[in-house]
Amino acid sequence: MNSSVLQYRIYLAILFFVFVIGMIGLITIEQFTPLDAVYFIIVTLATVGYGDLHPVTPAGKIISIIIILTGVGCFVGLVANSVELMVAKRERNLSQKKINMIIGVFFSEVGTTLLKKFSALDPKNEEIRSALIVSNDWSERDFSNATAALKNHKSHVDSRAINLGELNDFLNRNKNFLLSLLENPQMIEHENFIPLLLAVFHLAEELNVRERLSDLPPSDYHHLTGDINRINGLLIIEWLTYMKHLKENYPHLFSLAMRTNPFDVNASPIVQ
What we know:
Low-confidence stretches: none
Shape: elongated
Largest sheet: none
Radius of gyration: 30 Å
Distance between the termini: 49 Å
Number of strands: 0
Structural class: mainly alpha
Strand content: under 5%
């Protein structure tokens, strides 16, 4: 749990305890009405102190001292902590927007192309294809159902069915772009995207170190198949998450994404 959130909860719990004890004490000892007790505690916590109400018994004065020493400090701390949490939330939202922009560029330059290559060669894609035909009518529940459908899906792309030389050329052409994404400090905050980038880099390195990319032994094809399916599985999940982001925040970008859906065999960028 975030330390600021924990602090906030502690302040709130102490303040609630002080408020309840103060209410009971002022009503029973000072004979305040419930409204007067609430009023007295609030003006005390807020350090306004109008003076129109004040305790007259020793016990009532002790309760007031407890409210002042404990409650006022917690109240000030609660206000300061609330401001800190709001600022932190705003910064997180801005950071997430920037991260999503970077992910969008990734799919435009590399991700969607890889998805098209792999999905066309995955015989198991028919099992999930219908779950990935995202439309403008999709709700939060539809995205949740699609995510659930992907949990049990395993990619089955065979590396022998792919033109590995062409794939290697594509990854090499985009190597500098991928490196720039990896070097971006904001991407460290995205726990799902970094493993995807590292998997893509690993495949690129595997392909680069081989003197030839055809007529490989079965064991080597099997190894490359594992690397490719690792990427494909991560790509599909990240793509679906990004589609949800576009639908919620950028309808015009979502429209294009639907018309170029790599899982829709009838997809066309032409607006019908």
